[in-house]
């Protein structure tokens, strides 16, 4: 429009610029290189922008939301950091506990209809009968080393022909107490009468023993279906104090060493037995315990393979270890090792010369690798005593059998062995805390402190992976 000589441009809407002007301005701007998307937007920005919706943790949507006011974001961020520290402490504590391989023990009583009666070994404290060794070379030799420790060096030549011709097992059997003289009478389950033929002879670490319900006899194990003395073993024994003989191997007490052990296993009489004395009636109530232990790393048990025994147990392992020690030292078999090897047993000369020399070294310095068995059945005795016999019984028997005064109290003893109840106490070692328990604790900690779960870890991994993928693969929208 014209007004006089002046010309005015056409008006457009308020605050607008004509398209021609914009185009001219655009054309006047020099061309610029367009930066790629990954250069203009950092990975951290992609990660930060995705956090509120990618991880299901309470408070994330406030702490990482740029539209929220600063103090609110700071408050929630602080809460999340504190909760994360508590979570880290809890998880670390549980991880350390898991690393200790913790266990627990369950104890319960299993009532059964039938129980296997234990094998019972009876061993006289006196090794050799005086009437058998009196006037023999054995008496002179044993008495000599009893009072002079160096006697063995001189005696080795004086008694060499005798000492080198017999073994310790020969001495125990030939000069030891006889079963028919030691076992006076007996009853099994109040109905079956027993005598010496119901017992087997066994050479043990103690010496010669009489064994009842022995697997070596070839008979099946005896069983009991009711508790009480009427269903057990009652045995009268003669200590034969009048046959006592003192020597360096003798024990200065009188009586019998008794051991209850599982049928089919080996005994350690010296370490595990209990004693009964003449002039007493010993009442032995038995409780059965079965123990199940865990293997490493949670426990220490191991059913180790043995050379001389089919089944593993501590007594079998110790007997084998001791026998191997003396075999390596002396070149012959220790007398307590059962006849399961063709190795020649040590003679009496070997036993006292070589065995005596190395015995102290074995006891003090040698350690047997005998781990805890994984399964053990044991028979725990509860022992009480009464005087035996009564004055009346002794007077009657003394007159009947022409015993001298005090003979029965000095020589006879009575023992009753029975189950207190027909049950087995089961002791089982269990894994108390495993990796699954650890995962459950982790999930509980996440839920308690952060409102998350185990899946939160996978959400976090997904967030990292997805943000990296978006940052590396997403192309910019370039305007042409």
TrEMBL record:
<protein>
    <submittedName>
        <fullName>Uncharacterized protein</fullName>
    </submittedName>
</protein>
<keyword id="KW-0915">Sodium</keyword>
<keyword id="KW-1133">Transmembrane helix</keyword>
<keyword id="KW-0894">Sodium channel</keyword>
<dbReference type="GO" id="GO:0015280">
    <property type="term" value="F:ligand-gated sodium channel activity"/>
</dbReference>
<dbReference type="GO" id="GO:0005886">
    <property type="term" value="C:plasma membrane"/>
</dbReference>
<keyword id="KW-0739">Sodium transport</keyword>
<dbReference type="InterPro" id="IPR001873">
    <property type="entry name" value="ENaC"/>
</dbReference>
<keyword id="KW-0813">Transport</keyword>
<keyword id="KW-0472">Membrane</keyword>
<dbReference type="GO" id="GO:0035725">
    <property type="term" value="P:sodium ion transmembrane transport"/>
</dbReference>
<keyword id="KW-0406">Ion transport</keyword>
<keyword id="KW-0407">Ion channel</keyword>
<feature type="transmembrane region" description="Helical">
    <location>
        <begin position="74"/>
        <end position="92"/>
    </location>
</feature>
<dbReference type="Pfam" id="PF00858">
    <property type="entry name" value="ASC"/>
</dbReference>
<feature type="transmembrane region" description="Helical">
    <location>
        <begin position="446"/>
        <end position="470"/>
    </location>
</feature>
<comment type="similarity">
    <text>Belongs to the amiloride-sensitive sodium channel (TC 1.A.6) family.</text>
</comment>
<keyword id="KW-0812">Transmembrane</keyword>
């Amino acid at each position: 429009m014209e007004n006089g000589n002046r010309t005015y441009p056409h008006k457009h809407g308020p605050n607008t610029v004509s398209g021609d002007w914009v185009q001219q301005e655009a054309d006047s701007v020099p061309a610029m290189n367009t930066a790629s998307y990954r250069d203009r937007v950092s990975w951290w920005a992609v990660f930060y922008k995705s956090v509120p919706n990618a991880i299901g943790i309470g408070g994330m949507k406030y702490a990482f939301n740029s539209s929220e006011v600063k103090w609110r974001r700071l408050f929630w961020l602080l809460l999340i950091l504190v909760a994360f520290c508590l979570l880290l402490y809890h998880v670390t504590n549980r991880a350390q506990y898991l690393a200790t391989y913790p266990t627990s023990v369950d104890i319960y009583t299993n009532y059964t209809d039938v129980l296997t009666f234990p094998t019972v070994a009876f061993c006289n404290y006196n090794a050799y009968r005086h009437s058998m060794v009196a006037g023999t070379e054995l008496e002179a030799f044993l008495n000599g080393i009893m009072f002079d420790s160096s006697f063995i060096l001189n005696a080795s030549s004086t008694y060499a022909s005798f000492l080198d011709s017999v073994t310790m097992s020969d001495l125990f059997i030939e000069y030891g107490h006889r079963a028919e003289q030691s076992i006076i009478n007996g009853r099994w389950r109040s109905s079956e009468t027993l005598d010496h033929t119901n017992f087997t002879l066994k050479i043990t670490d103690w010496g010669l023993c009489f064994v009842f319900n022995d697997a070596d006899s070839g008979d099946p194990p005896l069983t009991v279906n009711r508790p009480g003395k009427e269903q057990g073993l009652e045995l009268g024994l003669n200590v034969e104090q009048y046959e006592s003989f003192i020597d360096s191997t003798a024990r200065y007490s009188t009586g019998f060493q008794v051991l209850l052990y599982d049928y089919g296993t080996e005994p350690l009489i010296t370490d595990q037995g209990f004693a009964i004395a003449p002039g007493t009636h010993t009442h032995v109530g038995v409780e059965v315990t079965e123990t199940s232990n865990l293997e490493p790393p949670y426990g220490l048990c191991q059913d180790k393979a043995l050379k001389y025994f089919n089944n593993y147990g501590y007594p079998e392992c110790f007997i084998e270890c001791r026998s191997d020690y003396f075999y390596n030292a002396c070149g012959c078999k220790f007398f307590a090792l059962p006849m399961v090897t063709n190795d020649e047993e040590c003679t009496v000369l070997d036993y006292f010369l070589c065995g005596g020399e190395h015995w102290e070294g074995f006891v003090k310095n040698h350690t047997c690798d005998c781990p805890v068995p994984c399964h053990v059945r044991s028979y725990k005795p509860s022992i009480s005593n009464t005087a035996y016999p009564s004055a009346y019984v002794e007077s009657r028997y003394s007159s009947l059998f022409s015993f001298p005064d005090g003979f029965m109290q000095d020589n006879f003893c009575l023992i009753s062995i029975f189950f207190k109840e027909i049950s087995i106490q089961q002791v089982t070692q269990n894994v108390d805390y495993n990796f699954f328990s650890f995962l459950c604790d982790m999930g509980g900690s996440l839920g308690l402190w952060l409102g998350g779960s185990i899946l939160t870890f996978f959400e976090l991994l997904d967030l990292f992976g997805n943000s990296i993928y978006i940052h590396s693969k997403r192309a910019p929208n370039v305007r042409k």
